[in-house]
Design goal:
single chain, alpha/beta, TIM Barrel, eight-stranded parallel beta sheet, 47% helix, globular, binds coproporphyrinogen I
Amino acid sequence: MTVLQKCIKKKSNGNCIWLMRQAGRYLPEFRRIRENNQDFIKLCLNENLSSEITVQPLKRFDIDAAIIFSDILLVPHALGQTVNFKKDFGPMLGEINFNKISNVQESEFVNKLKPVYNAIHKTKDKDEIKDKDLIGFVGAPWTILVYMLNRKSPKNEKLNINVNDKKFIDDLLIIIIKFLKIHIENQINNGATIIQIFDSWAGLLDKKDYEKYIYKPTKDLVDFVKSKKTPAICFPKGIKDYKEYVGAVNPNVISIDYDVDPMLISKTIDITVQGGLDPNFLIGSKEELEINVKKYLDIFKDKPYIFNLGHGVLPNTDPGMVDYLVKLVKNYS
Ligand code: 1CP
Protein backbone atom coordinates (compact mmCIF):
# COMPACT_ATOMS: atom_id res chain seq x y z
CA MET A 1 0.00 0.00 0.00
CA THR A 2 1.30 3.50 -0.82
CA VAL A 3 2.10 6.07 1.88
CA LEU A 4 -0.88 8.15 0.84
CA GLN A 5 -3.33 5.23 0.78
CA LYS A 6 -2.22 4.31 4.30
CA CYS A 7 -3.04 7.87 5.40
CA ILE A 8 -6.42 7.71 3.69
CA LYS A 9 -7.32 4.37 5.25
CA LYS A 10 -6.50 5.85 8.68
CA LYS A 11 -3.72 3.30 9.08
CA SER A 12 -1.04 5.86 9.79
CA ASN A 13 -0.21 9.49 10.01
CA GLY A 14 2.64 8.93 7.58
CA ASN A 15 3.81 12.54 7.30
CA CYS A 16 2.49 12.40 3.77
CA ILE A 17 2.39 15.38 1.46
CA TRP A 18 1.53 16.54 -2.04
CA LEU A 19 0.56 20.04 -3.17
CA MET A 20 -2.22 21.45 -5.29
CA ARG A 21 -0.64 23.05 -8.40
CA GLN A 22 2.64 21.34 -7.58
CA ALA A 23 3.36 21.41 -11.30
CA GLY A 24 3.07 24.89 -12.74
CA ARG A 25 4.48 28.33 -13.28
CA TYR A 26 6.64 28.49 -10.12
CA LEU A 27 8.89 25.81 -11.67
CA PRO A 28 11.40 27.12 -14.27
CA GLU A 29 11.30 23.76 -16.07
CA PHE A 30 7.53 24.21 -16.53
CA ARG A 31 7.92 27.81 -17.72
CA ARG A 32 10.42 26.65 -20.36
CA ILE A 33 7.86 24.23 -21.81
CA ARG A 34 5.04 26.79 -21.48
CA GLU A 35 7.00 29.46 -23.42
CA ASN A 36 7.02 27.21 -26.46
CA ASN A 37 3.41 26.12 -26.00
CA GLN A 38 1.22 29.21 -25.87
CA ASP A 39 -2.06 27.33 -26.35
CA PHE A 40 -2.80 25.96 -22.87
CA ILE A 41 -5.52 23.48 -23.96
CA LYS A 42 -3.19 22.10 -26.63
CA LEU A 43 -0.46 21.72 -24.02
CA CYS A 44 -2.83 19.76 -21.75
CA LEU A 45 -3.67 17.57 -24.75
CA ASN A 46 -0.03 16.89 -25.60
CA GLU A 47 0.37 13.52 -23.90
CA ASN A 48 4.18 13.50 -23.88
CA LEU A 49 4.54 17.01 -22.49
CA SER A 50 1.70 16.69 -19.96
CA SER A 51 3.21 13.45 -18.71
CA GLU A 52 6.62 15.10 -18.44
CA ILE A 53 5.17 18.11 -16.55
CA THR A 54 3.30 15.77 -14.18
CA VAL A 55 6.55 14.25 -12.90
CA GLN A 56 8.57 17.49 -12.79
CA PRO A 57 7.83 18.15 -9.08
CA LEU A 58 8.60 14.52 -8.20
CA LYS A 59 12.10 14.95 -9.61
CA ARG A 60 12.69 17.80 -7.18
CA PHE A 61 10.76 17.00 -4.03
CA ASP A 62 10.11 13.99 -1.79
CA ILE A 63 6.33 14.18 -2.31
CA ASP A 64 3.95 11.22 -2.14
CA ALA A 65 1.82 11.70 -5.23
CA ALA A 66 1.67 13.18 -8.69
CA ILE A 67 -1.45 14.91 -9.99
CA ILE A 68 -1.97 14.62 -13.70
CA PHE A 69 -1.20 17.85 -15.55
CA SER A 70 -4.55 18.76 -17.07
CA ASP A 71 -7.37 21.20 -16.31
CA ILE A 72 -10.96 21.05 -15.10
CA LEU A 73 -11.99 23.13 -18.14
CA LEU A 74 -11.08 20.35 -20.58
CA VAL A 75 -14.57 19.00 -19.89
CA PRO A 76 -16.43 22.03 -21.34
CA HIS A 77 -13.86 21.95 -24.17
CA ALA A 78 -14.68 18.31 -24.93
CA LEU A 79 -18.39 19.17 -24.79
CA GLY A 80 -17.81 21.57 -27.68
CA GLN A 81 -17.72 24.88 -25.80
CA THR A 82 -14.74 27.02 -26.84
CA VAL A 83 -12.19 27.46 -24.03
CA ASN A 84 -9.24 29.86 -24.35
CA PHE A 85 -6.74 30.89 -21.70
CA LYS A 86 -5.84 34.53 -22.12
CA LYS A 87 -2.57 35.71 -20.58
CA ASP A 88 -3.10 37.76 -17.39
CA PHE A 89 -6.88 37.28 -17.64
CA GLY A 90 -7.62 33.57 -17.25
CA PRO A 91 -10.10 31.35 -19.02
CA MET A 92 -12.54 32.69 -21.62
CA LEU A 93 -15.35 30.40 -22.72
CA GLY A 94 -17.55 30.67 -25.80
CA GLU A 95 -21.32 30.75 -25.88
CA ILE A 96 -23.17 27.56 -25.02
CA ASN A 97 -25.06 25.84 -27.77
CA PHE A 98 -27.38 23.66 -25.69
CA ASN A 99 -28.62 21.67 -28.68
CA LYS A 100 -25.08 20.77 -29.63
CA ILE A 101 -24.07 19.93 -26.07
CA SER A 102 -27.08 17.73 -25.45
CA ASN A 103 -26.21 15.72 -28.54
CA VAL A 104 -22.55 15.06 -27.73
CA GLN A 105 -21.84 11.33 -27.87
CA GLU A 106 -19.68 9.54 -25.30
CA SER A 107 -17.27 8.32 -28.00
CA GLU A 108 -16.77 11.84 -29.34
CA PHE A 109 -16.08 13.19 -25.82
CA VAL A 110 -13.66 10.38 -24.95
CA ASN A 111 -11.86 10.80 -28.27
CA LYS A 112 -11.23 14.47 -27.59
CA LEU A 113 -9.80 13.67 -24.15
CA LYS A 114 -7.85 10.57 -25.25
CA PRO A 115 -4.50 12.40 -24.80
CA VAL A 116 -5.32 12.93 -21.09
CA TYR A 117 -5.98 9.22 -20.65
CA ASN A 118 -2.86 8.33 -22.64
CA ALA A 119 -0.81 10.74 -20.49
CA ILE A 120 -2.09 9.03 -17.32
CA HIS A 121 -1.22 5.64 -18.80
CA LYS A 122 2.28 6.82 -19.70
CA THR A 123 2.88 8.51 -16.35
CA LYS A 124 1.92 5.58 -14.17
CA ASP A 125 4.80 3.54 -15.62
CA LYS A 126 7.45 6.20 -15.00
CA ASP A 127 10.20 5.52 -12.46
CA GLU A 128 9.41 8.67 -10.48
CA ILE A 129 5.97 7.39 -9.61
CA LYS A 130 6.76 3.81 -8.60
CA ASP A 131 5.01 3.08 -5.27
CA LYS A 132 3.29 6.47 -5.37
CA ASP A 133 -0.18 7.60 -6.23
CA LEU A 134 -1.25 9.25 -9.45
CA ILE A 135 -4.15 11.58 -8.74
CA GLY A 136 -6.78 12.15 -11.41
CA PHE A 137 -9.31 14.96 -11.01
CA VAL A 138 -12.44 16.72 -12.15
CA GLY A 139 -14.13 19.99 -11.32
CA ALA A 140 -17.23 19.51 -9.20
CA PRO A 141 -20.51 19.90 -11.13
CA TRP A 142 -21.22 23.32 -9.53
CA THR A 143 -17.79 24.75 -10.41
CA ILE A 144 -18.03 23.47 -14.00
CA LEU A 145 -21.51 24.98 -14.25
CA VAL A 146 -20.13 28.32 -13.01
CA TYR A 147 -17.44 28.45 -15.71
CA MET A 148 -19.77 27.24 -18.49
CA LEU A 149 -22.45 29.83 -17.69
CA ASN A 150 -20.29 32.72 -16.49
CA ARG A 151 -17.84 32.11 -19.37
CA LYS A 152 -14.90 33.45 -17.36
CA SER A 153 -13.52 33.30 -13.84
CA PRO A 154 -15.98 34.72 -11.31
CA LYS A 155 -13.09 35.88 -9.12
CA ASN A 156 -13.22 39.63 -9.83
CA GLU A 157 -16.92 40.29 -10.31
CA LYS A 158 -20.23 39.08 -9.03
CA LEU A 159 -21.35 35.80 -10.58
CA ASN A 160 -23.30 36.54 -13.73
CA ILE A 161 -25.71 33.60 -13.90
CA ASN A 162 -29.38 34.01 -14.64
CA VAL A 163 -30.90 31.59 -12.15
CA ASN A 164 -34.38 32.38 -13.47
CA ASP A 165 -33.74 29.99 -16.29
CA LYS A 166 -33.89 27.04 -13.91
CA LYS A 167 -34.91 24.40 -16.45
CA PHE A 168 -31.90 25.20 -18.65
CA ILE A 169 -29.53 25.04 -15.66
CA ASP A 170 -31.03 21.78 -14.40
CA ASP A 171 -30.74 20.15 -17.84
CA LEU A 172 -27.15 21.35 -18.22
CA LEU A 173 -26.26 20.03 -14.77
CA ILE A 174 -27.48 16.55 -15.74
CA ILE A 175 -25.26 16.59 -18.85
CA ILE A 176 -22.26 17.83 -16.85
CA ILE A 177 -22.64 15.06 -14.25
CA LYS A 178 -22.96 12.40 -16.94
CA PHE A 179 -19.73 13.47 -18.66
CA LEU A 180 -17.80 14.04 -15.43
CA LYS A 181 -18.48 10.37 -14.60
CA ILE A 182 -17.22 9.33 -18.03
CA HIS A 183 -14.08 11.44 -17.48
CA ILE A 184 -13.52 9.94 -14.01
CA GLU A 185 -13.99 6.39 -15.27
CA ASN A 186 -11.46 6.82 -18.08
CA GLN A 187 -8.88 8.34 -15.74
CA ILE A 188 -9.25 5.41 -13.32
CA ASN A 189 -9.16 2.82 -16.11
CA ASN A 190 -5.88 4.31 -17.33
CA GLY A 191 -4.13 4.36 -13.97
CA ALA A 192 -5.38 7.17 -11.71
CA THR A 193 -5.36 5.73 -8.17
CA ILE A 194 -7.19 8.59 -6.40
CA ILE A 195 -9.72 11.14 -7.70
CA GLN A 196 -9.86 14.70 -6.36
CA ILE A 197 -13.01 16.73 -6.96
CA PHE A 198 -12.29 20.50 -7.05
CA ASP A 199 -15.23 22.71 -6.08
CA SER A 200 -13.27 25.95 -6.29
CA TRP A 201 -16.39 28.13 -6.31
CA ALA A 202 -18.47 26.36 -3.64
CA GLY A 203 -18.12 29.56 -1.57
CA LEU A 204 -20.19 31.57 -4.07
CA LEU A 205 -23.41 29.71 -3.46
CA ASP A 206 -26.09 30.53 -0.89
CA LYS A 207 -26.42 27.90 1.81
CA LYS A 208 -30.03 27.25 0.79
CA ASP A 209 -28.81 26.05 -2.62
CA TYR A 210 -26.10 23.69 -1.33
CA GLU A 211 -28.30 20.58 -1.40
CA LYS A 212 -29.29 20.95 -5.03
CA TYR A 213 -26.08 22.23 -6.62
CA ILE A 214 -23.34 20.91 -4.34
CA TYR A 215 -24.31 18.07 -2.00
CA LYS A 216 -26.46 15.94 -4.27
CA PRO A 217 -24.39 16.19 -7.49
CA THR A 218 -21.05 15.80 -5.67
CA LYS A 219 -22.27 12.80 -3.66
CA ASP A 220 -23.33 11.24 -6.95
CA LEU A 221 -19.72 11.58 -8.22
CA VAL A 222 -18.19 10.42 -4.92
CA ASP A 223 -20.39 7.29 -4.92
CA PHE A 224 -19.32 6.65 -8.50
CA VAL A 225 -15.59 6.98 -7.65
CA LYS A 226 -16.03 4.67 -4.63
CA SER A 227 -17.84 2.09 -6.78
CA LYS A 228 -14.57 1.87 -8.77
CA LYS A 229 -12.72 0.97 -5.54
CA THR A 230 -10.92 4.30 -5.66
CA PRO A 231 -10.74 6.94 -2.91
CA ALA A 232 -12.35 10.34 -3.48
CA ILE A 233 -10.91 13.59 -2.09
CA CYS A 234 -13.25 16.59 -2.06
CA PHE A 235 -12.12 20.23 -1.96
CA PRO A 236 -15.16 22.49 -1.53
CA LYS A 237 -13.27 25.78 -1.28
CA GLY A 238 -15.05 28.41 0.78
CA ILE A 239 -17.91 26.16 1.94
CA LYS A 240 -19.53 27.51 5.11
CA ASP A 241 -19.86 24.26 7.05
CA TYR A 242 -17.31 21.51 6.40
CA LYS A 243 -18.93 19.14 8.88
CA GLU A 244 -22.30 19.34 7.17
CA TYR A 245 -20.58 18.89 3.79
CA VAL A 246 -18.78 15.73 4.96
CA GLY A 247 -22.05 14.35 6.33
CA ALA A 248 -23.89 15.03 3.09
CA VAL A 249 -21.22 14.05 0.54
CA ASN A 250 -19.26 11.41 2.46
CA PRO A 251 -15.90 11.54 0.67
CA ASN A 252 -12.88 9.49 1.81
CA VAL A 253 -10.88 12.67 2.39
CA ILE A 254 -11.91 16.29 2.94
CA SER A 255 -9.48 18.94 1.70
CA ILE A 256 -9.81 22.21 3.64
CA ASP A 257 -9.12 25.78 2.55
CA TYR A 258 -7.02 28.36 4.43
CA ASP A 259 -10.01 30.29 5.81
CA VAL A 260 -11.28 27.50 8.02
CA ASP A 261 -10.05 26.97 11.59
CA PRO A 262 -8.07 23.68 11.58
CA MET A 263 -8.73 23.17 15.30
CA LEU A 264 -12.48 23.22 14.70
CA ILE A 265 -12.05 20.75 11.82
CA SER A 266 -9.94 18.40 13.92
CA LYS A 267 -12.52 18.45 16.73
CA THR A 268 -15.61 17.96 14.57
CA ILE A 269 -14.59 15.83 11.57
CA ASP A 270 -13.57 12.20 11.84
CA ILE A 271 -12.56 11.33 8.28
CA THR A 272 -9.07 11.93 6.83
CA VAL A 273 -8.32 15.63 6.45
CA GLN A 274 -6.05 17.18 3.81
CA GLY A 275 -4.53 20.61 3.40
CA GLY A 276 -5.24 24.00 4.95
CA LEU A 277 -1.96 25.95 4.94
CA ASP A 278 -2.26 29.34 3.25
CA PRO A 279 -0.06 29.21 0.10
CA ASN A 280 1.08 32.76 0.93
CA PHE A 281 3.27 31.29 3.70
CA LEU A 282 5.46 29.84 0.93
CA ILE A 283 6.20 33.41 -0.15
CA GLY A 284 7.17 34.72 3.30
CA SER A 285 10.05 33.84 5.62
CA LYS A 286 11.23 30.31 6.50
CA GLU A 287 10.58 31.01 10.18
CA GLU A 288 6.96 31.96 9.63
CA LEU A 289 6.47 29.01 7.30
CA GLU A 290 7.85 26.62 9.91
CA ILE A 291 5.59 27.98 12.68
CA ASN A 292 2.51 27.57 10.52
CA VAL A 293 3.43 24.15 9.13
CA LYS A 294 3.96 22.94 12.71
CA LYS A 295 0.59 24.38 13.67
CA TYR A 296 -1.20 22.09 11.21
CA LEU A 297 1.01 19.07 11.99
CA ASP A 298 0.46 19.51 15.75
CA ILE A 299 -3.29 19.91 15.44
CA PHE A 300 -3.64 16.79 13.26
CA LYS A 301 -0.88 14.78 14.99
CA ASP A 302 -3.10 11.93 16.14
CA LYS A 303 -5.45 12.00 13.16
CA PRO A 304 -5.18 10.72 9.62
CA TYR A 305 -3.90 13.82 7.80
CA ILE A 306 -2.41 14.54 4.37
CA PHE A 307 -0.32 17.70 4.30
CA ASN A 308 -1.30 20.09 1.49
CA LEU A 309 -2.14 23.75 1.00
CA GLY A 310 -5.47 25.53 1.36
CA HIS A 311 -5.31 26.34 -2.40
CA GLY A 312 -2.72 25.97 -5.17
CA VAL A 313 0.98 26.92 -5.08
CA LEU A 314 1.24 30.56 -6.23
CA PRO A 315 3.25 31.30 -9.41
CA ASN A 316 5.73 33.59 -7.58
CA THR A 317 6.75 30.86 -5.10
CA ASP A 318 10.44 29.99 -4.79
CA PRO A 319 10.85 26.22 -5.39
CA GLY A 320 13.43 26.29 -2.57
CA MET A 321 10.61 27.13 -0.14
CA VAL A 322 8.60 24.16 -1.40
CA ASP A 323 11.60 21.93 -0.80
CA TYR A 324 11.94 23.37 2.73
CA LEU A 325 8.22 22.71 3.37
CA VAL A 326 8.41 19.10 2.18
CA LYS A 327 11.42 18.46 4.45
CA LEU A 328 9.62 20.03 7.44
CA VAL A 329 6.70 17.66 6.93
CA LYS A 330 8.84 14.57 6.30
CA ASN A 331 11.09 15.21 9.33
CA TYR A 332 8.26 16.07 11.74
CA SER A 333 7.81 13.78 14.69
O1 1CP B 1 0.81 28.78 -17.41
C1 1CP B 1 -0.32 29.04 -17.07
O2 1CP B 1 -0.81 30.18 -17.07
C2 1CP B 1 -1.21 27.90 -16.70
C3 1CP B 1 -1.71 27.95 -15.32
C4 1CP B 1 -2.54 26.69 -15.09
C5 1CP B 1 -2.07 25.46 -14.62
C6 1CP B 1 -0.65 25.11 -14.25
C7 1CP B 1 -3.92 26.53 -15.35
C8 1CP B 1 -4.81 27.54 -15.91
N1 1CP B 1 -4.28 25.25 -15.06
C9 1CP B 1 -3.18 24.55 -14.61
C10 1CP B 1 -3.14 23.13 -14.27
C11 1CP B 1 -4.14 22.60 -13.34
N2 1CP B 1 -5.41 23.09 -13.13
C12 1CP B 1 -3.98 21.45 -12.56
C13 1CP B 1 -2.77 20.56 -12.74
C14 1CP B 1 -2.21 19.77 -11.73
C15 1CP B 1 -1.55 20.48 -10.56
O3 1CP B 1 -2.28 20.86 -9.63
O4 1CP B 1 -0.32 20.55 -10.53
C16 1CP B 1 -5.15 21.30 -11.81
C17 1CP B 1 -5.48 20.25 -10.78
C18 1CP B 1 -6.04 22.34 -12.19
C19 1CP B 1 -7.41 22.49 -11.68
C20 1CP B 1 -8.14 23.75 -11.93
N3 1CP B 1 -8.21 24.49 -13.08
C21 1CP B 1 -8.99 24.37 -10.99
C22 1CP B 1 -9.28 23.81 -9.62
C23 1CP B 1 -8.25 24.18 -8.63
C24 1CP B 1 -8.16 25.66 -8.33
O5 1CP B 1 -7.14 26.25 -8.71
O6 1CP B 1 -9.10 26.19 -7.71
C25 1CP B 1 -9.52 25.52 -11.58
C26 1CP B 1 -10.47 26.51 -10.95
C27 1CP B 1 -9.03 25.59 -12.90
C28 1CP B 1 -9.34 26.62 -13.94
C29 1CP B 1 -8.15 27.36 -14.36
N4 1CP B 1 -7.08 26.82 -14.99
C30 1CP B 1 -6.11 27.75 -15.21
C31 1CP B 1 -6.60 28.99 -14.73
C32 1CP B 1 -5.86 30.29 -14.77
C33 1CP B 1 -7.89 28.75 -14.20
C34 1CP B 1 -8.85 29.78 -13.67
C35 1CP B 1 -8.70 30.08 -12.24
C36 1CP B 1 -9.66 31.19 -11.87
O7 1CP B 1 -10.86 31.14 -12.24
O8 1CP B 1 -9.21 32.11 -11.20
